[in-house]
Fold this sequence. Notes:
Elements: E1 2-6, H1 13-24, E2 28-30, H2 31-40, H3 44-55, H4 61-72, E3 81-84, H5 90-98, E4 105-110, H6 113-122, E5 123-125, E6 132-134, H7 161-175, H8 177-183, E7 188-192, H9 197-211
Parallel strand pairs: 1-3, 1-4, 2-3, 4-7
Antiparallel strand pairs: 5-6
Helix pairs in contact: 1-9, 2-3, 4-5, 6-7
The protein binds BIS(adenosine)-5'-pentaphosphate.
BIS(adenosine)-5'-pentaphosphate binds next to α1, α2, α3, α6 and β6.
Amino acid sequence: MKLILLGPPGSGKGTQAAFIRDRFQIPVISTGDIIRAQLKSGSEEGLKLKSYIDQGELVPDDLVIRIVEDRLAQPDCQNGFILDGFPRTVAQAQALEAMGTKVDAVIDIALPDEIIVDRLSGRRVCPSCGASYHTTVIPSANGTHCDRCGSELVQRNDDTPAVIRNRLAVYGESTAPLTAYYRAEGKVIPISSEGSVEDVKAAIFGALEALQ
Length: 212
Ligand code: AP5
């Protein structure tokens, strides 16, 4: 199963990608996570990317396309994968096709902007294992540390109100056109993320099981 998770920042792509990974035993390729790991490594390439992420701007296409091409060549992707956060531009979608990758479905998650702002403002992430929480909806057991590995939870630099607004604007301009792009191929599965995490998961699993 080769899937794309499309949707605005904070719509729940990462949350749902983890459920799909566990259910279908296929890896999640999150370009955001890969770029943040490069940043953390302190590499020269990582440092160049910091200003894009911190301002909520897209990293240049050629860099992110190279990252995905390298990752898709790994053996664990041979039976399928979930692309979370890629493609984000029509040029990236065309590059994915040029790599010879045919996706089975594009799960297009929708959520109104005002709910997105609330979800992203409350998001806390584990800097060690990457687990994601929300201060009120999905808190960790003690509210400050990761349930999985015990590290102190942090807020992402790009989860501030001004940067969230810019990320939403960038999404509308550069990424939203991908819905029409993939709809023309008959691959779009629209999913609303307004319900609970479990409701959204059930809607996605129902659609994927029908697809199988
Ligand atoms: P990236 O890391 O991909 O960020 P994003 O797309 O903005 O998405 P998020 O991770 O913010 O949100 P999400 O949809 O995964 O939501 P989540 O599940 O966490 O990208 C970051 C940056 O990297 C970009 O701005 C860009 O600079 C760069 N980049 C990455 N890919 C790129 C590309 N292809 N090209 C160029 N640049 C690229 O959920 C959010 C919160 O809501 C969490 O707290 C969660 O617990 C909570 N939640 C989830 N579902 C529910 C629910 N149903 N009810 C209540 N709360 C919920």
